[in-house]
Design a protein that fits this description.
The chain is mostly helical. It has one domain. Helix 1 runs antiparallel to helix 4, helix 1 crosses helix 5 and helix 3 packs antiparallel against helix 4. The chain is elongated and about 70 Å long. The chain starts with 7 loop residues before the first helix and ends with a helix.
Length: 149
């Protein structure tokens, strides 16, 4: 029983560019949105930088495992990333109200929208379906190997 129906390098060449681009755009949006929230709400606080680093770490430690879960065949984890991207989009839009941060805000909104477009692309949806099929085939293969003496 084969797990992949085509070579692994074809799989990587076909699906990984959009997944990696979406992840990098999400992390870019995370950095800009974290700065937006910290600059808007915590600017006068002496622990401004600690809050900023904490929010950035929370975003990265949420996006990373969610993307890993998608690559392992749980395509529902994409919704965690989408919710974070909508939050990042709103935070970047909030930063537009801050004096002198208009260009930074536009870059944050563009990276959030581009990441959402990557996660909504046909290629990414094909990736999610394919890794789900691979996960089911892997589970069947493991169950078959355990049942044989």
């Amino acid at each position: 029983m084969t797990i992949l129906t085509f070579p692994i390098f074809t799989f990587i060449k076909r699906f990984y560019p959009v997944a990696i681009l979406g992840l990098l755009l999400t992390l870019t949006a995370s950095v800009i949105a974290t700065d937006a929230v910290a600059a808007f709400f915590f600017k006068s606080d002496p622990n401004y930088h600690l809050y900023s680093i904490g929010m950035l770490a929370a975003g990265a430690f949420t996006v990373g495992p969610a993307q890993y879960a998608v690559m392992r065949g749980t395509s529902e984890a994409t919704w965690v990333i989408v919710v974070l991207l909508v939050f990042y989009l709103l935070a970047s839009a909030l930063m537009y109200l801050t004096q002198g941060m208009e260009i930074f805000s536009v870059i944050g909104m563009l990276s959030s929208c581009a990441a959402l477009a990557c996660f909504n692309s046909r290629r990414y949806r094909q990736l999610c379906k394919r890794v789900k099929v691979i996960r089911r085939m892997r589970e069947r293969f493991i169950a078959q190997c355990r049942s044989e003496p």
